[in-house]
């Protein structure tokens, strides 16, 4: 078939010699989608936690965190201005994992204290969770700023939040506590002493018994008596 004959056979169709079919362009590859700010923050904290656990505070750098998190240094510094700010955010995250504060609701004080201190957290999980605090305490001699970060973003905030909850209970007439701040310090000492003290050869049931004893001693000392027949745990 000649070229002219082929062209004649195509008359009336949407193909012409003047406008041959154009090749399909390959899709353009754009920039990678930018992570949402919350995801960037999560990545940075996860990378910092891992590096601190592996190398310690002194050897952890912002460059290393950025590489581990697969973030640019510019992005990392937009989220956290310094390594100290990163550690402060980790301490705040740890505090929230320890204490469910502020606490809302009308739970009886003994039930509320169990929930505030998350006493049902498995001991193995609690040990892993507390690794950051052990690291800070171990390195605070060489890096005094670590102790300041821990106090400012951990115990100080926890103490204030717990004192506010106790003050609310006192205002409602549920607890008889003249000094909520003092009572909050006592309760923190009692609960963390019971939760973190690990006697040699102790069993998990011993830890649970110490926790329940601490709660009972505190609420009774604060003038609250659970109703007769009330379940010890809810």
From TrEMBL:
The record's section on PROSITE patterns has: HTH_TETR_2
Keywords assigned by UniProt?
DNA-binding
Region annotation Disordered: where it falls in the sequence: 1-40
Q: Where is the HTH tetR-type domain?
A: 38-98
InterPro entries attached here? Homeodomain-like_sf, HTH-type_TetR-like_transc_reg, HTH_TetR, Tet_transcr_reg_TetR-rel_C_sf, TetR_C_Proteobacteria
Q: Which domain of life is it from?
A: Bacteria
GO MF term list = DNA-binding transcription factor activity; transcription cis-regulatory region binding
This protein is called TetR/AcrR family transcriptional regulator
Organism encoding this protein: Phreatobacter cathodiphilus
């Amino acid at each position: 078939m000649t070229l002219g004959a082929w062209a004649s056979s195509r008359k009336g169709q949407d193909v012409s010699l003047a406008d041959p079919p154009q090749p399909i362009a390959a899709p353009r590859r754009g920039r990678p989608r930018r992570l949402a700010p919350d995801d960037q923050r999560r990545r940075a904290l996860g990378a910092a936690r891992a590096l601190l656990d592996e190398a310690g505070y002194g050897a952890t750098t912002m460059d290393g965190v950025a590489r581990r998190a697969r973030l640019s240094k510019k992005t990392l510094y937009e989220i956290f201005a310094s390594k100290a700010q990163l550690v402060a955010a980790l301490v705040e995250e740890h505090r929230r994992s320890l204490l469910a504060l502020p606490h809302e609701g009308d739970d009886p004080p003994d039930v509320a204290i169990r929930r505030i201190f998350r006493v049902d957290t498995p001991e193995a999980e609690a040990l892993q969770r507390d690794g950051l605090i052990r690291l800070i305490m171990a390195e605070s001699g060489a890096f005094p700023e670590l102790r300041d970060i821990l106090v400012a973003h951990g115990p100080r905030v926890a103490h204030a939040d717990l004192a506010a909850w106790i003050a609310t209970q006192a205002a409602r007439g549920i607890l008889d506590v003249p000094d909520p701040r003092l009572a909050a310090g006592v309760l923190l000492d009692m609960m963390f002493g019971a939760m973190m003290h690990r006697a040699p050869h102790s069993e998990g049931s011993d830890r649970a018994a110490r926790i329940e004893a601490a709660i009972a001693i505190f609420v009774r000392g604060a003038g609250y008596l659970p109703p007769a027949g009330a379940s010890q745990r809810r």
